[in-house]
Write a structure and sequence with these properties.
- By secondary structure, this protein is an alpha/beta fold.
- It has a single domain, classed as D-Maltodextrin-Binding Protein, domain 2 (3-Layer(aba) Sandwich).
- It has six helices and five strands.
- The longest helix has 13 residues.
- The N and C termini lie far apart (40 Å).
Length: 148
């Protein structure tokens, strides 16, 4: 029986199941990338957002400084954001930031505990950019990208 259980939960099968659920549009929440309403940026591509959150750029498309704010790594949106927007796993994100931090080329985005906290931070900081559940967005922030 042990062999059967181990066979059923083989890592390759688990990975295949995860990939299938991703391709079928799993039950993840719709997510939006938000900026302060005073930020001149009207919309952004996933590539532009990814560059800001992975330390490849610290400048918004409008030329202003970017202050990305992250969800907590253990939070429900963190893994989804990096998978969908940057095409990276959380371990790849950690490795990339470890290299940048070690070489003195950057520090990871500040992490806040919830979408409500991120929305409040972005609403109060012209340079801020964050990601939250679409349902948490309101008139205090501007949506520049929707991620399904």
């Amino acid at each position: 029986m042990k062999a059967t259980l181990m066979h059923r939960h083989h890592p390759a099968r688990v990975l295949a199941g995860l990939l299938l659920s991703l391709s079928l549009g799993s039950a993840w929440a719709e997510m939006v990338i938000i900026v302060n309403p005073k930020n001149p940026v009207a919309n952004m591509s996933a590539e532009q957002v990814s560059a800001l959150f992975l330390g490849k750029s610290n400048v918004m498309p409008s030329g202003g400084t970017a202050a990305p704010v992250d969800q907590l790594e253990a939070g429900p949106l963190y893994e989804e954001f990096y998978a969908k927007v940057a095409g990276k796993s959380s371990s790849q994100v950690k490795a990339a930031w470890s290299r940048l931090t070690f070489s003195g080329k950057g520090t990871p985005p500040r992490a806040l505990a919830s979408s409500v906290e991120i929305r409040k931070f972005v609403a109060g900081n012209v340079d801020a950019i964050g990601y939250i559940e679409k349902s948490a967005a309101d008139a205090s922030v501007k949506v520049v990208l929707s991620v399904n």
